Amino acid sequence: xxxxxxTGSSGLIGGEVVSYxxxxxxxxxxxxxxxxxxxxxxxxxxxxxxxxxSSLHPHFHHHEMDMRDRQAVAGLVRELxxxxxxxxxxxxxxDLAASRPFDDFDVNAVGALNLLEAxxxxxxxxxxxxxxxxxxxxxxPNRLKLRELETRWDYADPDWQNGIREDFPIDQSKHxxxxxxxxxxxxxxxEYGRYFNIPTxxxxxxxxxxxxxxxxELHGFLSYLIKCNVEGRKYTVFGYKGKQVRDNIHSQDVVRxxxxxxxxxxxxxxxxxxxxxxxxxxxxxxxxxxxxxxxRKMVWEYVDKxxxxxxxxxxxxxxxxxxxxxxxxxxxxxxxxxxxxYASWQTRSPAAPPALSA
Length: 358
Hints:
By secondary structure, the chain is an alpha/beta fold. The protein has helices at 12-22, 35-40, 47-56, 70-80, 94-99, 101-122, 176-196, 221-231, 251-263, 283-294, 319-324, 334-348; strands spanning 3-7, 27-31, 60-63, 84-87, 128-133, 146-148, 153-155, 200-205, 207-209, 234-238, 245-250, 269-273, 280-282, 299-303, 313-314.
């Protein structure tokens, strides 16, 4: 039985990786210490997902471990000698990173290095997949010429209609402290691929989402927005007239791409991973879509100040991903994503009232 090591295994993507590969006969080992609850409080707790995964998959083994513990990580990696490593553990919030910069860098950058070096020592021929972020580009995408439409911002230059490509520059821009720590891990993963010839890839995610997401205000835009609608909470829009655009990709589509990469790994690759133009949505458009599903009006307020380093319009160009792995494509539409997240919060949220007809 092939072994896989997944970090952040109780989170959205890590949990999806566990389920997908455990169902396909892998022995999956997960590292997670529920630090999301430390970062975001009870709303960010992922223990529920850890328990769910353990109950569903007999070949899943949970390891309570901190990615910053270099010796513990190295010991487990050496013991397992896994045929694949998928690194999803991270501190994911812009705002939190600014108030806890050492925790942010130690988890995102040092944690990735701990895992990389342990992997190089134990089983360097096995592929290593790193969940990076589109925030490695900083706010440089905001320099592109945009046009303002009724409900969204969009690229004015036809050269960018498909979205941001992997050759977009990452320096000379404001990244946020979080973005800077993820740049460090992203470059290190690439370097281990090039310098040591390890099959690695960095997946520069846009808005990765799905029904298992424990979305909070500081991280998990779509999950949190839908949760606010379900519970009748007030949602705060930060700047850009609520017309800021994100492309959303379902966690299952993320894992399907990871599967394709593992079948035919390449060294030091980078991919912009998102839903593409077809799955892009602005906040105002997201309000309308969830209202049409739930039958409830969004309660929201507007703050005329954007978050530091926030993108105005970000759409991932999927051309390179599809060229390298033609068997992969987006399977979950935006409508399906909204419906699944809505149904999940209806079940998980104690504050959810009965569903209303639209």
